[in-house]
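Async update (no meeting this week)

Hi team, since we skipped the sync, here's where things stand on the single-chain job. The sequence we agreed to prioritize is pasted below, unchanged from the tracker. I ran it this morning and attached the output directly underneath so nobody has to dig for it. Comments welcome in thread, and please keep replies under the output.
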Amino acid sequence: QVQLVESGGGLVQAGGSLRLSCAASGRTFSIRFMGWFRQAPGKEREFVAGISWSGANTYYVDSVKGRFTISRDNAKNTVDLQMNSLKPEDTAVYYCAADRSYYSSRAYDYDYWGQGTQVTVSS
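Output:
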């Protein structure tokens, strides 16, 4: 099993920044890919960004390209999501997820999930 714990959510004004962090523990040797998803009220869970476990490859949904940056810290087994120029439409619960296979933007492909952290962007 893999345990994922997110931190760093909160309330920020439009144009501001937040940094989310996801700490992985347990059988992390089985992880091949890490993703950040978000889910706003009444909407489906959406892929935001992803990174290979090695950190060599990154992927972003078009709506966050140029604003969000995903990164890995191999020593700490963490995956961070730096979010800049935040917009009210970025408001959602953000989830960290781990996949034992390679890149996927589909939530049902991921094997492990964190509990989620709320990000609220006020206008």
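Quick observations from my side:
The longest strand covers residues 18-26.
The chain has a mean pLDDT of 96.
Reply here if anything looks off.
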